[in-house]
What does this fold into?
Amino acid sequence: MNPRARGLVALLAAGAVLVVGWPLLSRALGSSAEPLRDGSRLTLGSGTTEARFAVGPGWSLRKSGSDPAQSYKLERAGTDLAISLVAPPAGTSPGQLWEGLRDVVRIGDPDARLGVPRPYRDGLSGPLQVGADLGSATVLPHPDGTAAVEATVLGGSPDDLDAAARVVGSLRFTGTAR
It folds into this structure.
């Protein structure tokens, strides 16, 4: 393998270790989760790409994996919910966002499966499986195409998965063009 290819493989491996390993390490060392009040509204991003969502009862914010400018990691019982703001190239379709999310999920776990999506509001949503955990994934493009929100839900009881679906359903872009 030539040195450039080795460097690229090392860079991708380091990214995968951070994406998958950091949450596992955080859980092993003890949760840094902060309980959220029922009805709490969280803001993701800022300015013209700002998005907001609300949580119901029982959700906690994983502080070690959250940055309001880019992403939130939430948990409820055995359910993990990740919501991220991404900046795709101009003109990216929901289908292309879905394929990009598939690539990101597979970096974290090469055996992960992102199923066939269905239309969901202005984006797409579909099944997600990572190991034995089942859930869903959703991509929602900003109306002007400058950003998108990606949400993944994994694990938990049917009630917890429904609660996660309500959080994802509350996502709204609130930023306005200047």
